[in-house]
Write a structure and sequence with these properties.
- The complex is a heterodimer of chains A (about 400) and B (about 600).
- Chain A is α+β, with helices and mostly antiparallel strands.
- Chain A has two domains: about 55 residues, no CATH class; about 280 residues, Cytochrome-c3 Hydrogenase, chain B (Orthogonal Bundle).
- Chain A contains 15 helices and eight strands.
- Chain A is globular, with a radius of gyration of 22 Å.
- Chain B folds into four domains: about 120 residues, Alpha-Beta Plaits (2-Layer Sandwich); about 110 residues, Orthogonal Bundle (Fumarate Reductase Iron-sulfur Protein, Chain B, domain 2), CATH 1.10.1060.10; about 140 residues, FAD/NAD(P)-binding domain (3-Layer(bba) Sandwich), CATH 3.50.50; about 150 residues, 3-Layer(bba) Sandwich (FAD/NAD(P)-binding domain).
- Chain B has 21 helices and 20 strands.
- In chain B, a hairpin with a 5-residue loop joins strand 16 and strand 17.
- Chain B is globular, with a radius of gyration of 31 Å.
- The termini of chain B are far apart.
- The chains are: A alpha+beta (about 400), B alpha/beta (about 600).
- Chains A and B meet through helix 3, helix 6, helix 7 and helix 8 of A and helix 1, helix 2 and helix 3 of B.
- The complex binds iron/sulfur cluster (2 copies).
Chain lengths: ~400, ~600
Amino acid sequence: MDLTKMFQFNADRSSYPELDANGKPIIDLSSHKYLKLWQGPQHPGVTGNMSLELTVNGDEIVESITHVGYLHRGFEKLMERRKFIQCFPTCIRMCVAEPDPNEYILSACIEELGGIEVPETAQWLRTLALEMARLQVLLRGVPGQAGTFSLGLGYQWGNYIRDLILDRFEELTGGRVYHMYILPGGVRGLLPDGFKKRMEENLKLVDEFLVNINDLMYNNIVFKQRAVGLAVIPVEWIDKYGVYGPSARAAGIMRDVRKTHPYLKYGELDFEPFTTTASDVYARSLVRWHDLKMTVDLIRQIMAKMPDKGDIKAPTPNVMHWRIPKGETYVKCESSRGEYGMYMVTDGSDMPRRVNLKGPSYTQATALLERLLINANIADTAAIMVSLATCPPEIER
Amino acid sequence: MSIKDLLTPFTAWKRITKDPVTIRDPFNDRPGAERYRGFHKNDVNKCIGCGTCEDICENEAIDMVPFKDPISGDSGLRPRLDYGRCCWCALCVDVCTTNSLTLSNEYTWVTVDPEDFRYTPGVDKKAWDDNEKGWKKPEGNYEFYNINRVEMHHLHPEDRDKSFVEMVKGYSREQAIAEADRCVECGICTATCPAHMGIPEYIKAVRHEDMEEGLRILYETNPLPEICGRICTHKCETVCSIGHKGDPLSIRWLKRYIADNVSSDKYKEILNTIDLSNNHKKVAIIGSGPAGLSAAHYLALMGYQCTIFEQYEKAGGMMRYGIPEYRLPYDSIDKDIDYILSLGVDIKYNARIGIDITLEQLNKDYDAVFAGTGLHLGRSTGIPGSDNEHVYYATDLLRQITAGEEIEVTDQIVVIGGGNVAMDITRSLARMQNQKFGKVNIITTALEREKNLPADLEEVVESREEGAVINPGWAPQSIEIENGRPVGLHVIKCNSLFDDSGRFNPQCDITKKEFFRGSMIVQSIGQGMDLSYVSEDFKKDLEFGPRGRVQTNAHFQTSVKWFFMGGDIIEGPDVIHGIANGHKAAIGIDNYIQGIDFAPAK
Ligand code: SF4
Ligand code: SF4
């Protein structure tokens, strides 16, 4: 029995609309063939706080325009009016779900321009915090892909374990969501007593979760039918659209800053990021599943190798008027969504002259998403968006 | 795709037998973690209201609000939180200069009135006030500023104990900037400084390497920065916020750094005093100590013609004739004084009021008179033998040393007194003994016990480094005289100085006796004022206070309207009070001459 034929959803898609000589779609709304449909904004968090202006023909999208601007925060600009230390509580909000990379790149920029050496122990703790951040994000991100096809069960499982990881964050950093742990010069605390043991207990649950989610998603005919072959990113687009991290690795391109440009303690850890080539929603999701698995392994390695004691912060000039000499730098790290970097310019004053964030959502959820949605089914919009790990707060910082 | 893909998802059903993971009872409290960043707590008695927490808060969630009357070292304000703005980053906790501010691990708070969410931790009682858990400043090497002072280079005892060269070397550029960096610009020091100097402002100028701006700020409130930068009693440093967790800022050395690093020929240009106006009014000033010089300086800026009457050969009063050169070199005194004189201030040396010219005459010749005549008279212990000619007053000896006069120095000396003047004469005589005999043999004894010695700790330590024996806690009884010379001092143990009500009432133990050998005795138990220049007639018009001090109002005006007094005779004794008095008196004199009313004598 050929199950593929039996559950054939991928009926031939039309070639609407016709394209003009420049390759632009010719859309005449008055022809009544097309309809404008707005997806979002409808939720103040996650993917809901941006909106897609879709032009549909039947249930087929013929054009999509990404609209951002509903968060109106302007953190980059605000930081130009903040002392360096005051940028620290500001920057974390640039990506709410995974705030730690924000803290790290801000601190690393300031440290590089200000000539600060971060102590060994603090570097290990930073590496740990960044992997814990990835862990808690992927615990929702991986099953979340199935959620876009209405399979919410895995999401509940993941969320439960994520809550336990947030407990670990809470005891390490004092916060569950905004950890505010990595600050210029170092970090804000050593591991509490018994932390490693409790973490290991949680990791065991993640091991189990990985098996269960594998059964639930990647060996699931419905998930496969929906995700396989959906929104393929041709390899030529990877550079053209600025695709990073898991999305690039799903297209067979090894992009992982941890491996290609090791920072903090990644050079001392043993890991090999997973790559595959199908480059569709299924492949991207699978890469994330492997990322989650690798993160569990990395956390175990870090906890085994890191020193228990040591300085957590290098002395810095007085933060109340820390002036940093004229300079500029770009610092990057690997977030769960891909390369996450910050460009900072300093002018010798006690505030940054310019801060610019470079996150993967910015390129992937605007230009690339618009392109991928052409000829997609309305029902697949959310899946495609999530497969690109879209984070509107990071686009609109 | 295979049949497996159809079936495996159903393995999720195996979880049906497991307990749900959600919390069954959502009403029970779930305490926050040990380090949780919950609601604020403040130990208001430890907090000094420095406002650094307010400054660091990028959300402007903290306002400093009145809590009690300000006192020295405490602004009287306390931080008030606005939970409509706070993001619980806890930077306020980490930066707190006293560690008084912490966060509890409490995170639920339900109230119907949104105004409740604005509160003053520690003042407005909250359920979490006694909560031990929650965020505190991380332990270990975790500070937002350096709490350790940049060490000042001092000459080693062996390099200084034979000469009068200056022993404190002053900061280098790097040292000064690093020290200035430690300031959090709270201004607690400004409130305590008698002259209310713009301390955080001039420290900032050091940080920004803007010496000209620094000098301008210094002269706004203090025209003797070279001098104060060396020997000020630095009350500011005793209250400096940073001193609560570490070493206070070296405010005094930073002031000196500015003054040392601007050459005197630039002063007039920088301070914009090249063309001062002249209002053709004249003020006479008696004494060229800090109060007199300060009054002359500020009056000159306002256009007054000032004439200083100085009884000695050189200007400076006790700063020159009381403080030894190793602490305050004459060049530094001259730099400050020469600048003031360059503003058109006239000075008459060797001019004694009451002898060369009377106060009454001054009143006729001038529009107002200011007297800052200081405390020059040595006080006697009055014990048997103290009238011997080889028993001296410290003030006399110090003056003679400055004047270059020959003084007696024997190989065994006893000094009576525990204040800074006693240390000054001890250390001066030690140096002279070293020069003359190649060794030091000097005992300094005081009524007070070691921990209550009125002298600065560093003075005591350095005296000992230079070979003097400081042996406090003894009451002098008599000086034994043999063949017309002292041979030593008899003392008995002094157990306490003050009684329960705080009155001076020494309790001694006559069974514990000691004899300090010395062929020369120096008394340094305080100084008195010499008002002999005020005629008896004139004295009748002056109002005197309980301790024999002349009563003045807030502008140092006496009950005789044209006669102002300030400095050690009114307040202090120290240089900075004199400077502050002189400045205020200058304003008072200006008001008086212009006929503006101000508060009458208190
Ligand atoms: S920083 Fe600390 S000492 Fe200063 S006002 Fe705030 S709570 Fe009080
Ligand atoms: S010197 Fe000390 S008390 Fe004065 S402003 Fe600076 S930190 Fe505050």
